[in-house]
Amino acid sequence: DLYRKVFVFRKDPSDAYVVLRAKLEQPLQNFTVCLRSYTDLTRPHSLFSYATKVQDNEILLFKPKPSEYRFYVGGKFVTFRIPEGRGDWEHVCASWESATGIAEFWLNGKPWPRKGLQRGYTVGAEAAILLGQEQDAFGGGFDVYNSFSGELADVYLWDAGLSPEKMRAAYQSLRLPPAVLAWKSLSYEVKGDVVVKSRLRE
User: Fold this and answer.
1) For the chain, first and last CA: distance in Å?
2) Is residue 202, in this structure, part of any structural domain at all?
3) Among 172, 157, 35, CA closest to 109
4) What stretches in the chain show pLDDT beneath 50?
5) pLDDT of residue 67
């Protein structure tokens, strides 16, 4: 249970990462991924990387620069342009549904205009899920200049799209539906220089 805890990725650039283990029974037609990050990086960095043997960017949350997030599904991506942060925690949720190909992006509890992505696609279930590095091969192939440095917390993955109420609840750290990856019952393994610490502030 990592409630009120964070992963601190201490080095920049870094070869460290955290492996997450999800209980995924079948491929995903819908999903939502949420997390909180705190960093002063201005270079490109990966936040959440979900790779299968067929597709290294099966699901990827990537920040190429401070004013932009990229959300990948099945190797294709859409870009969400955001105001540059004021040096605070950023909470992001990205959700996708195969039937409509609608990609939703929420930043700090607010939805951005929806975009179209990979309609009819299915996300594979046998995945390597990593925080802190961007996979260019299944479970590896890292470029340190895409590595994350800073603090990560409140990582969740659901095999469903969340309602707007639940998206806001995730931002406010309220009660959430059962997830395939949940911060309060996370199965993880640290590889390299990552430290679990208490959160400094709310």
Assistant:
1) 17
2) no
3) 172
4) none
5) 96
- Which DSSP string do the residues of 127-182 spell out, in sequence order? -EEEESS--SBTTB---GGG---EEEEEEEEESSPPPHHHHHHHHTT------SB-
Total number of domains constituting the chain: 1
Does residue 200 fall inside a structural domain?
A: no
**Residue 85: what pLDDT?**
78
Domain limits for position 92: 5-195
pLDDT digits (tens, 9 = 90+) for 45-71: 999 999 999 999 999 999 999 999 999
What's residue 179's pLDDT?
Answer: 96
Does residue 103 lie in a domain region? yes
pLDDT at position 87 is 84
Give the pLDDT of residue 190.
98
Which residues are bridge partners to 50 per DSSP? Answer: 59, 129
In a domain, 33, yes or no: yes
